[in-house]
Amino acid sequence: MIQTLTPRNDATLPTAPRPESTRAQRLRPLVGKPAGSLVIHEIYRSLQGESTFAGLPCVFVRLTACQLRCRYCDTPHAFAQGMTLTLDEVAARALDLGDRLVEVTGGEPLLQPEVLPLMTRLADAGRTVLLETGGALDIGLVDRRVHVILDLKTPGSGEVEANLWSNLRLLKATDEVKFVLCNREDFDWAVAQVRAHALTDSCPVLFSAAFGQVNPTDLAAWILESRLPVRLQLQQHKILWHPSARGV
Ligand code: SF4
To answer: What are the C-alpha distances in Å from 101 to residues 73, 188, 206, 217?
Structure first.
């Protein structure tokens, strides 16, 4: 089921703002949000597509707003459009859809502190909970039952400076680190990070080809050549449905 929600704000950004005003602009959709509520872009069912859980039916809870602007972002519609729901309402809608697997994503879900009790509520209800986060905000307060899928932003993303490296010390065996690779330089950078931080000793590591930028066949060859135990991750939903399709 795809749920269409009403736009809450206008995300139009100035062309050359100072960094602080840029961040403030990007967080504007969350300004005035009542405590205990979340600004939600959409809640829907689909197949999980970008982790070791890929292929499983999953409920997606997509939160509004992101402080980053990755060059390859495929969810810019979540930057500003959404509606305010109470934590109880969000949990009830996610649980009503019935799937055992629930992914909390965005936007950047960790911008809204209420996402922490939401994930705990979903885990308490017996759901397997995934959190997709851009890797720029602290994961230290996330319920230990949640599987954190942590992006490490590459140079090609345009957001490499945003990586919060201290998060790597918090990774559990049930978490996953994901690199979205835009070119061969990104691949070499990712390999260097995997080796420098011994990431494959912590949790599964996913190498994903930015859609339309890296040929997955080339990426497969590069991975084999590197001899690293990392997993090739295809953006399954873009293979199954149109790459620009929303709510899938
Ligand atoms: S962190 Fe995710 S939602 Fe935010 S800009 Fe990057 S890809 Fe888009």
So the answer is: 24, 33, 19, 29
> Cα of 127 to ligand 1 centre, how many Å?
25
Residues 165-184 have pLDDT tens digits of 999 999 999 999 999 999 99
Four-way CATH pick for 20-240: 3.20.20.70, 3.30.70.20, 3.40.605.10, 3.40.30.10: 3.20.20.70
Burial class (CB in 10 A: 0-12, 13-18, 19+), 198: exposed
135 lines ligand 1 (CB under 6 A): no
Q: How far is the CA of 81 from the centre of ligand 1 (A)?
A: 14
Task: For residues 4 and 17, give the distance between their C-alpha atoms in angstroms, rounded to a whole number.
Answer: 31
For the chain, the structural domain boundaries read 20-240
The string of pLDDT tens digits covering residues 88-139 is: 999 999 999 999 999 999 999 999 999 999 999 999 999 999 999 999 999 9
Summarize pLDDT for 57-84 with one digit per residue, the tens.
999 999 999 999 999 999 999 999 999 9
| Measured distance CA(78)–CA(70) in Å, rounded | 13
- Interval between CA 154 and ligand 1 midpoint (Å): 12
Ligand 1 pocket test, candidate residues 22, 72, 75, most atoms within 8 A of CB: 75
Q: Whose CA is nearest to atom 1 of ligand 1?
A: 134
**pTM reported for the whole predicted model:** 0.90
| Average pLDDT rounded to a whole number, residues 47-64 | 96
